Amino acid sequence: MKKDPFELARSLCSKARRVCALTGAGISAESGLATFRDAGGLWEGHRVEDVATPEAFRRDPRLVWQFYNARRKAGAEARPNPAHLALAKLEERAQVSVLTQNVDGLHGKAGSTRVVELHGSLWRVRCTGECPPLAHAEPLELAWPTQCKRCGELLRPDIVWFGEALDPKVLEESARAMLESEVFLVIGTSALVQPAASIAFEAVRRGIPVVEVNRERTPLSKLASATLLGKAGELLPKLLKA
Ligand code: APR
Fold first, then answer.
1. Across all residues in the chain, what is the average pLDDT?
2. CATH 3.40.50.1220 in the chain, residue ranges
3. Which of the listed CATH numbers 3.30.1600.10, 3.40.50.360, 2.60.120.1440, 3.30.1490.20 matches domain 34-77+122-159?
4. What parts of the chain have a pLDDT lower than 70?
C-alpha cells in the first residue's frame, strides 16, 4: 500500500541529520506579508517593472526608494510565524540550511543560523558605484537621496531585482547545502522563479528526497517525494515535531 504523503514526509524529516529548505513568499504570508502572486502581481500597488528592476531605478530612483521604505516598514512590523519557528527549532536536532527567496529577514528573526538570502535583504543597502558591495547600516526609513559616504554615488537596496543575476557565491553556497542534504524541503514557493527554483529540480535529479509544502500544487509537485497541501504555519510544526 502507498504510504500517506504526510507520514512519508515525517519519516524522511525525522531521520535526516542534514536538512536543506528552499523557502518563498508563502512562508511569510501568515506573518502578514502578501505574496507577489496573491497581490495580483502588484507590490504595494505598483507594477514590478516600475519598482523592482534596474531600469526602474534609473528612471525614477525616488519612487523605488519610497517603495522599499514601505516594504521595510511592513517588514519591520512582521513577526516570524510557526513555520519560521519550526525550521529554527529543527536546528536542535539537525544541521539546517535555509535558502530563502525572501528579503524580509524573518528566518533570522526566528533564530535560524544558516540562512542564505538568494535575493538579498530589505535590511541592507549598497552603493551603485564602484565601492565594494554591502554593509551600510540600515535605518528603517531612509531619506532620499541617500548617497554613499565613500564615493557620493547613490545607494540602492541590496536586492536582486528582476533581470539581475544572482551572486555566483550565493548560488555555489546554495548548491553545496542542497547536495549535502538528506532531505530537501520546498516551502511556500511557486517554483517558477529562476534560478532559485532550479535548486529544487536539481535536488530531484540528484535523488535527494524532496518534500514540498504549499497551499497549492506547483510544477515541482509531480516530481517531489511528497507534497503536503496546506498552510506552512500549520503543517511545518507538525511535520518537524521531534
Ligand atoms: N503556506 C504555504 N504556501 C503558501 C501560503 C501559505 N500560507 N501562502 C501562499 N503560499 C504559496 C502559494 O501557493 C505560491 O505557490 O506560496 C507561493 C508564493 O509564490 P510567489 O508569490 O511566486 O513567491 P516566490 O515563489 O517566493 O517568488 C519568488 O519572485 O516575487 C518574486 O523576487 C520575488 O523572491 C520572489 C520570487
1. 91
2. 1-33+79-119+166-242
3. 3.30.1600.10
4. 1-2, 37-44, 133-142
| Residue nearest to ligand 1 atom 30, measured at CA | 36
Give the atom of ligand 1 at the shortest distance from the alpha carbon of 119.
Answer: 34
CA distance 118 to 21: 12
Q: Is the pTM of this model over 0.85?
A: yes
Q: How far apart are CA 117 and CA 108, in angstroms?
A: 10
Active-site residues, by number, are: 119
Residues in the chain: 242
Amino acid occupying residue 159: I
Q: From ligand 1's centre to the CA of 191, what distance in Å?
A: 8
Angle between helices 232-239 and 5-15 (to 10 degrees): 60
Atom of ligand 1 nearest to the CA of 52: 32
What fold characterizes domain 1-33+79-119+166-242? Answer: Rossmann fold (3.40.50)
Ligand 1 centre from 218 Cα, in Å?
A: 10
